[in-house]
Design brief:
β18 and β19 form a beta hairpin. Among the domains are: 111 residues, Beta Barrel (conserved putative lor/sdh protein from methanococcus maripaludis s2 fold); 89 residues, Efflux pump adaptor protein, beta barrel domain (Elongation Factor Tu (Ef-tu), domain 3), CATH 2.40.30.170; 62 residues, Orthogonal Bundle (Helix Hairpins). It is built from four helices and 21 strands. Strands 1, 2, 15, 16, 17, 18, 19, 20 and 21 form a nine-stranded mixed sheet that branches. α2 packs antiparallel against α3. The radius of gyration is 43 Å and the shape is rod-shaped. The chain is 26% helix and 38% strand.
Amino acid sequence: MAKRMLIMIAGVIVLVAILAGGFFMHIKALMAASPKPGPQVVTAVKVQALEWQPQLAAVGTVTAVRGVDVTTEIAGLVREIHFKSGQDVKKGEVLVQLNDDTDRAQLQSLLASAELAATTLKRDQAQFEAQAIAQAQVDADAADLKSKRALVAQQQALIAKKTIRAPFAGKVGITTVNPGQYLNPGDKIVTLQTIDPIYIDFSLPQKQVNGLSIGQVVNASTDAVPGTNFPGRLTAISPKVDPATRNVVVEATFQNPKRQLLPGMFANAAVEVGDKKHYLTLPQTAITYNPYGSTVFIVMTAAEHARAASAASGAAPAPAPAASGGDQLVVQQAFVTTGDTRGDQVAVLSGLKEGQTVVTSGQVKLKNGTPVAIDNSVQPAFSQNPHPQEQ
């Protein structure tokens, strides 16, 4: 009985072993028949040396060369407005005329009094020569004439203040003043701005002050006019550093014939400093920034990758297996040292050589030795002066 039981157990064990072996062979066949992963599709670019102009970049504010809100010094009723909103005016051009009828009538009265005082002085001088009156009378007449003429000059100045003129040439803004409106002293009539040329004021850190000098080239751009570069010159450097920010304010002057830059706009300004340099340049998307360093993926053939791996390990170079395809493109991760950035571009100071091919997108799915296929139908942006693509 026991012998029969042992035979049955042995038979079950053999049956289980046969089934397990068959299942293993089936899985192995399925794995062998499954399609192998193909190369990962990436974009890539050849490393090239480009000419870089060192720049100090900042964000500034557009400021008028001259700008003022035109007001009235004295109260009065608006009689005439001699300009239209948005018009260009010349220096001294009449903008607004206030009612001055009463003041002119008063001027005529003062002129008559001054003429009478002059006649009296002339007559008394003749009497003094005939020794008919004293010198004191002549002196009193002369003083009275001066006083009357001073009153005339004062009244003329008052009348002149009621003719409001442009203090300088420029462009007027939009006014809400109308004929017949009463103005009090200090009431705003219209803004007047000189915007060609125009200033851009911006701040730079104190450590960059020694690199600044009057006359340096400054390039500006603004999102109000995308894709347009405005060249100018550095014209003023503040003699004082702000103790709160440790920045120094500088001013650049730009020609603005098309009136594209307007006071109050913000603008990106870049001051050109030093001599031009040549840097190996890549799109910023090619760099993977990590806590342990910045890396890139270099594209090479499988044969080159095998030789590089052998050289790194110190072993004899091993030829790439024919089955793997020595011409198959694979990637090798490399550490790089990056420098300045310029728009979509970044300078690479070490870790690469000119002419090498570097992956610019698709790095997430890569590791050392991963086969790749390059498709550059859509390339990452690589402009030194980028602007928004969605308008």
